[in-house]
Amino acid sequence: MSEQTVKGAPARLAFQLYVGIGVAVFLLMMVAGAVLRMAQGAWIDIPANYFYQIMTLHGAGMVGTSGLAAAAVMWYFLRRHVDLSTGAFLTMLGLSLVGVVMILASIGIGGFAAAWTFLYPLPAKSAGLWGPHAAAGYVGGLIFIGVGFLVFYVDCAIAIIKRYGGLLRGLGIDQLLSGKIDTDHPPTVVASSMVIIINVIGIAVGAVVLVMTLVNLYVPSIAIDALLAKNMIFFFGHVFINATIYMAVTGVYEILPAYTGRPWKISRPFLAAWAAVTLVVMAVYPHHTLMDFVQPKWALVLGQVLSYLSGIPVLLVTIWGALANLHRSGVRWELPLRLIVFGLLGWSIGIIPAIIDGTIRVNYVMHNTLWVPGHFHLYLLLGLLPMLLGIMYFAATRANWQESVADRLMFWIYGVAGLVFCLFLLLGGSSSVPRRFAVHAQEWLMLTQIGAVAAVLVLLASLYLGIKLLRRLPHLQVGGA
Ligand code: HEM
C-alpha cells in the first residue's frame, strides 16, 4: 500500500485520542444498554425515572460517539488525498467533550430524561422531574457538539475545494455530466464530499431547532410550531446517523485494496449512486412522521417511496465493489477484515426492517414498537460498529494481525449474540411490544430476557475486542496526503 507515515506526532496523537475515547465510551454505553434490557426483563429493579435517564444517556452517547468515531475514520483516510488540519480535528473533539460534560451533568445531576431526540415540547414538560436548567444543559451540550462537527466539516470542505475545485467536483458531478470518468478519482473524496454536504445542512437545521428550544425553555411564551420542530429534529437526526455509515465506508474503500492488492476504481454507476443518495438521504426523513396525520400527505408519500430507495444505491455499489475486490483475491481472513466485511453484511441486513417500517400501513402498527430499535441496532450494532472496530484494528496493525483462537471466538460471539439481540427486538416489535417502556408486561418477558442474555454476551465480546484494541493504541499509525 502506498502511504507515507507522518513524522509529526500531533496527528497520530489526535487519532489515538479519538480511538481511545471512542472505544471507552462505546463500551460504557453498551453497559448502559445491557442494564436497560435487563431492567425491561425484570432482572434488575431500577426506578422508571432512572431508566429514562439511562436510556437518554445511552441514545445520545451512542449516536454522538458513532458520529465522532466515524468522523475520525473519514479524517484518517481523507488526509491521504487532501491536506487536513489536525487543529480543526482536535477542536471537534474539544468542543464535543465540553458538550458531553454538559449532557452528563444535565442527566446525572439535573435528572434530564427526555430521550436523545429531545422532541419538542418534552424537554420543557417534565412533570416536575427536571428543571429548565437541566434541559438547557442537554440542549446546550448538543449545540457545542454540533459546532465542533461544523468546524471539522468546514476544514474538510476547504481542503477538497482547494484540491478539486469544489464539493460537487469532489462528488464527481462534473464527471457524471461530461461522461468522462477519471477512474483515479478517490472514492474516499466522493463519500466525504457527500457527507460534508448533507451533514452541514443537517447540523445547521439541528442548531436552529436547538436554539429555538433553548429560547422556549426560558421564555415559554415564545412557542414553536410542534410539527415544524418535529420535522427539523428528525431531518437533523436522520441525516446525522446516516452520515456515520457514509463516513465509515471510506475505510472499506481504502482497506480492502490494502488486503487484496487491487485498487478500488470508481465508475459511472458508483458516482451516480453517491449523487442520488446525496439528495435522497435528505428527503427521506418524513418516514419518521408517517403517524402524524397533520403532516401534508405528499410528504408522507414521499417518505414511503424514498424509504425504499434511500441508501440502496450506495449499498449496492459498495457491496458489489467489495465482492468484486475480494473475489478470488486469495486474501488472508483476519480479524480487521472479518469485522469490516461483517459490518457490510449488518448494514445490508439492517436496511430490510427499515424498508418494512417505511411502508405507511405497516408503520401505523409498528413504529412505536421494538421493531424500530430492532432495525437500527441491526444497522448500527452489527453494521457500523464492527466496521469502525475493523478499521481501527487495521490502523493499529496494518494487514498484519496475528490472530488467536480467542479473537476468532469473540468475533463469532459478537456476531451471533448481536444477531440474536436484534432479532429479539424485532420479534418483540412484531408482537406489538412497545418501545421505550421501562417495565415490560409478564407476557413479553421471555422475549426480553433472551434479548438480555444476548446483550450480556455482546457486551463481554465487545469488552474483549475493545480492550485488545486499546492495548494496541501505541502501535497506531496515521498516513498523510
Ligand atoms: C450491547 C449493545 C447494546 C444494547 C444491549 C442496547 C440496548 C438498548 C435498549 C434496551 C434500548 C431501549 C429500547 C427500547 O425499549 O426502546 C436501546 C435504545 C437505543 N440504542 Fe442501544 N443497545 C446496544 C447498542 C447500541 C449501539 C451500538 C447503538 C448505536 C451505535 C445504540 C443506539 C441506541 C439508540 C439510539 C437507542 C434509542 C434510545 C431512545 O429511544 O431514545 N445502541 N438500546
Mean pLDDT: 93
Corresponding CATH architecture of the domain at 8-46 and 332-474: Up-down Bundle
Helix/strand/pairing class, anyone? mainly alpha
- Strand tally, please? 0
The biggest sheet amounts to: none
Q: What is the C-level CATH assignment of the domain at 8-46 and 332-474?
A: Mainly Alpha
CATH topology term of the domain at 8-46 and 332-474: Cytochrome C Oxidase, Chain A
Terminal Cα span: 14 Å
Share in β-strands: under 5%
Q: Rounded to an integer, what's the Rg over CA atoms?
A: 22 Å
Order of helices and strands: HHHHHHHHHHHHHHHH
Q: Say which CATH homologous superfamily of the domain at 8-46 and 332-474 is assigned.
A: Cytochrome c oxidase-like, subunit I domain
- How many H/I helices? 16
Bound molecules: protoporphyrin IX containing FE
- Low-confidence spans: 1-7
Coarse shape: globular
User: Helix coverage percent of residues?
Assistant: over 70%
Key terms for this structure?
single chain, 481 residues, binds protoporphyrin IX containing FE, 0% strand, mainly alpha, 16 helices
Summarize the structure in words.
- The chain is built from 16 helices and no strands.
- By secondary structure, the protein is mainly alpha-helical.
- The chain is 73% helix and 0% strand.
- Helix 7 (187-218) packs antiparallel against helix 8 and helix 12 (335-357) packs parallel to helix 15.
- It has a domain at 8-46 and 332-474: Cytochrome c oxidase-like, subunit I domain (Cytochrome C Oxidase, Chain A).
- Bound molecules: protoporphyrin IX containing FE (HEM).
- Protoporphyrin IX containing FE is lined by residues 30, 33-34, 36-37, 55, 58-59, 62-63, 66, 115-117, 373, 377, 380-381, 385, 435-437, 455, 458-459.
